[in-house]
Amino acid sequence: MRHCWRELHFEEERIKLLKSESLEDFVRDVLNLRSDAVLLWKWWDVGNKMITQQRPPIVTLQPRWWPPAGCLKINFDGAFAQETNVGAWGFIVRNHEGQPVLAGARNLVMTHNAPLAESYACKYALEAAAYLGLSRIVLETAK
């Protein structure tokens, strides 16, 4: 595999990943890779696991709840950084098949806590839905 990295001119990226001193450095380096390098790295990682008989875990997706036909589901959330009193909110509206219908997000220059940021998300989601004439909605926030 090493020669593949070299032939594709990814040797520098491979060495940089190997020299990562911490998990944080490693993750930052992976996130800064070009997408073709990421694909090659993942291929290399899975290949190594197969060679050492480490099978990747089988992930079973839990079915998510979708609203009944004719209803829309609004998921919303907010975040807050206590040090700066800066926050953000976001929402997504999905139909009964889980397809996105509408989404929105914004930064909050000044907020006091996460529940306040979440309340902005809910408020703006409901305002946007009302503006577009959407009805029969179900609200859900992060757990």
Automatic annotation (TrEMBL):
InterPro entries assigned: RNase_H-like_dom_plant, RNase_H-like_EbsB-rel, RNaseH-like_sf, RNaseH_domain, RNaseH_sf
GO MF term set: nucleic acid binding; RNA-DNA hybrid ribonuclease activity
Domain RNase H type-1, first and last residues per copy: 75-141
Protein name per its UniProtKB record: RNase H type-1 domain-containing protein
Gene3D superfamilies: Ribonuclease H-like superfamily/Ribonuclease H (3.30.420.10)
A Pfam family: RVT_3
